[in-house]
Every structure is written in structure tokens, then in C-alpha cells.
Amino acid sequence: MHPLDNPIWEALTTRRSCFAEGDGLARRFAPEVTSLAGFAEASESACTSLAALMADGEPAALFLPMQHDPLPGFDAVDSMPLLQMTLADSRTITPAAHVDDLTPSDAAEMLALAQLTKPGPFGMRTHEMGNYIGIRREGKIVAMAGERLRVEGYTEISAVCTHPDYLGQGFAAGLIGEMVERIRGRGERPCLHVRGENTRAIELYKRLGFETRAEMHALVLRRPGTGQ
């Protein structure tokens, strides 16, 4: 199996295992890090194992190879097509002229930008998963990007987002270019995941040289309970 065929599970059992909770059937990231979770295989026993990790009303986001029937023990919160993309080795992307390395002291501001722009699951500890960089204007973070899943040979670029007041200035492309240089500098290949309906982002990634490796499906589940 290719390490990107089941990327969340692969990360949780290898290069991101330090953040993992669970067993040999189901694992999730610590909820303060991200709501991502994965199965070795999507089975009833795996669902039972994942549910045992979660509080009532708590969400879990999974990347599945195809659209899946409702999973036992959970309510479906959201379901969407997902593209997994990798960057061709022959393509280079011009990095931003200046970026700031973001630190734990920026966590609250990073979370606020993610909540405003909704690039995907993001928590107060997401920044611990890898390098995070940003562009500031008047002292405020107006664009950022970082690393999330890491599997053998690949690092995922994630949380690419720009404040609505600063769109159209090339910040996302510049940040991605910087991330690509850092990832390749470690001898790895960059990859990313994007919602299938996010045509604006998909067009940008294609223009930069990313190619679709796989069509997947994202499913957000919630354990029923009073926390809904």
C-alpha cells in the first residue's frame, strides 16, 4: 500500500504517532491538535474503538477512499469529495520574499485566522505538527500555511489561508513556495488535500503544478450525545 492511500492512519501509526490516541483498529489525534482520525479499515469494530476514544458530541474527521455509508455509532456532520494532490518533481514555486516562522505564542491568532477562513480542522495545538509560517501586515498575521500529516517520503501542506481583506496578493502561492522548499530540503515530497468543491483553491494548486493523485472522500462524524 502506498503511504498516501490511507494518510491519516499512516501518519498516526508512524511519523505522527506521538500525537496519537487509540489502538490497532482506530486512532485519532489528541483533540487539541486536530479532529482528524483514521481506521486501519472502516469496520464496525473500528467504529466501536474510535467511539470509545471520544466524548459525547465530539467530532472526528476521516479521509476515506470513497463515499461511505453512515458508520455505526456516529451521526454524520459533513460529507464531501476530497482531492489528494502532489507536486510534480519538475515544478518549482517562487517562495514569498519574506515570511515569519510562527511560534506557540501565535497560536491564538493562528486559530482565529483559521476559524475565519475555514481551511480545515485546526486547533490550539495544530502548530505542533510541523513548521508554520505566515505573512504579517501591521503586525497581524494575514496569511499562513503549515505542515500537518507526515508519512514516509511525504509531508502534507495544510492550513493555507488568507484573510479576506488581503486576497489576490499572491500570499498563498508565496507561502506554498516556501513550504515546498523546506519539505524538499528534507528529501521529501509535498502533498495536500482540498475539498472537491473548492474550485478556487484547486485552480491555484493546479497552476502551481500540483496534480491529482487520488479522489477521496472526507467524512466528519460526531458521537451522539448532549454535546451536539
Word description of this protein:
This protein is of the alpha+beta class and 228 residues long. The strands form 2 sheets. The protein has an 8-stranded mixed sheet with strand order 4-11-5-10-9-8-7-6, with helices on both faces. A 3-stranded antiparallel sheet has the order 1-2-3, sandwiched between helices. It has helices at 7-13, 44-53, 107-117, 171-185, 199-208, and strands spanning 20-22, 26-29, 37-39, 59-64, 75-87, 100-101, 132-137, 140-151, 154-162, 189-195, 210-222.
SSE layout:
Layout: H1 7-13, E1 20-22, E2 26-29, E3 37-39, H2 44-53, E4 59-64, E5 75-87, E6 100-101, H3 107-117, E7 132-137, E8 140-151, E9 154-162, H4 171-185, E10 189-195, H5 199-208, E11 210-222
Parallel strand pairs: 9-10
Antiparallel strand pairs: 1-2, 2-3, 4-11, 5-10, 5-11, 6-7, 7-8, 8-9
Task: Please give the domain count.
Answer: 2
Rg computed from alpha carbons, rounded to a whole number of angstroms:
17 Å
What do we call the CATH topology of the largest domain? Aminopeptidase
Reading the helices and strands in chain order gives: HEEEHEEEHEEEHEHE
Q: Tally the beta strands.
A: 11
Shape: globular
Which ranges are low-confidence, i.e. pLDDT below 50, for 5 or more consecutive residues?
none
Terminal Cα separation, in Å? Answer: 36 Å
Percent helix range:
10-25%
In spatial order, strands of the major sheet run: 4-11-5-10-9-8-7-6
Question: Mean pLDDT, as a whole number?
Answer: 95
Query: Which architecture of the largest domain would the CATH scheme give at its second level?
Result: 3-Layer(aba) Sandwich
- What about the largest sheet? 8 strands, mixed
